[in-house]
Write a sequence for this structure.
């Protein structure tokens, strides 16, 4: 009886093990849009800005408690979803992206707001925050 050998292609499969370091989200604001509708200037007065920056910081601290893998296993309502960058109604500051680039969208503030970011090409844990959606106008919901 002849043995059948399966041809294994030269593809790497990334299976996490107990030795694999866990990757937690790291947030960077370097490319935050200058469009006032989608950055912190959305809030008109200083008191409102401070209150909402504090709320966003609390949400970022919450998001950093789970790994990227854990967030990816959640539904889009409790985890994140992705959309193509060309679906956004704003552009990131000093960052040129192709239309097939996907943005990551986290729902925050009891799902009323969104944090929108791009995962770093070089440091996969880093999410470059490129904007916020405070009024459901950043993309077609």
């Amino acid at each position: 009886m002849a043995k059948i050998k399966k041809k294994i292609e030269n593809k790497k499969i990334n299976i996490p093990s107990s030795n694999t370091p866990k990757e937690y989200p790291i947030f960077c604001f370097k490319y935050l849009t200058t469009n006032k509708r989608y950055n912190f200037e959305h809030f008109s007065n200083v008191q409102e800005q401070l209150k909402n920056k504090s709320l966003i910081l609390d949400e970022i601290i919450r998001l950093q408690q789970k790994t990227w893998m854990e967030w990816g296993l959640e539904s889009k309502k409790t985890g994140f979803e992705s959309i193509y960058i060309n679906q956004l109604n704003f552009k990131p500051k000093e960052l040129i992206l192709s239309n097939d680039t996907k943005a990551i969208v986290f729902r925050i503030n009891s799902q009323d707001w969104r944090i929108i970011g791009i995962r770093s090409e070089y440091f996969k844990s880093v999410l470059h925050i490129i904007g916020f959606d405070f009024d459901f106008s950043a993309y077609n919901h």
Q: What stands out?
A: The mean pLDDT is 88. The longest strand covers residues 126-133. The chain is about 15% helix and 20% strand. The helical segments are 46-63, 68-73.
